[in-house]
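Field reference: sequence -> structure
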Amino acid sequence: MLKKALFAATALFALAGAANAADLKEFRIGILGGENETDRLRNYACLADHLKQEFGFEKVSLFPAADYDGVIQGLLGGTLDFAELGASGYAAVYIKDPKAVTPILTTQQKDGSTGYHSIGLALKSSGIKTIKDAKGKKLGYADPDSTSGYLVPLTQIPKDTGMPNDKFFASTQFNGGHENNLLAAYDGKVDVAVDDSSGIGDFKDGYTSGTFRKEVDKGAVDPNKLVEVWRSPLIPNGPLVVRNALGEEWQTKLAAFFTALPEKDHKCFAAVEGGDYKGYAPVKHEFYNTVVEVRKAAIGG
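Structure field:
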């Protein structure tokens, strides 16, 4: 009898969870930190409107976290339903709880690739032309949970310089996200800043997407004053993830919604993604296996 009662209770809890997920009134979106909060909220406003219209949500809440970890913890703690993460941020979630979220889509560059680069930018006036010229200088990182702004430069720059970053550079520092990191280099607070970029298109435009492109579009930096001094191998584009507690039905619904967004409202799509992309492509956890292993080895969870 006890076994039957426990089974019945478990079944009821499962049904209640399914009902709650199916009858979702509020949809909570985490937005990675580090960039200007006002800009992030403005860029995501159109997405909130589309989600309300498509699914009838009473409320779509936007949470622009102060840093990457804010979104990571929100997904792990169940206070966020959806977010777009970098590959390293997704690895951090997966390492702590493999059952917390499911990746559904990733962005596709204009050339059809599903990867991007970490690039090192310096002021042209600094005289730095390659990363080897930056020996004994200051290196700026974006965020400890950033793929292109920390994990990849941490592990890949030494392959070009022959030394760990903390030995090659006079100092390294975190500058509170990608935007702040690029501006730190532009303002001379660091000599080289590492940031995300498609690496395709024209340098004078800030390439087709990434932080460099965003800052050029806003008029915050003049690309003529900057030079690219380092570029990483191709990095897997980060995933759009859905909290697993919502169930597979919502994963399917949201994947279809986002896949259609670039054609339905390209301006909104470009605002959310911060640049010119082709669209979204399906993705699974296996796409990030290498990043998960690199993160485990380099910085743990």
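Note: The CA atoms of residues 91 and 289 lie 8 Å apart.
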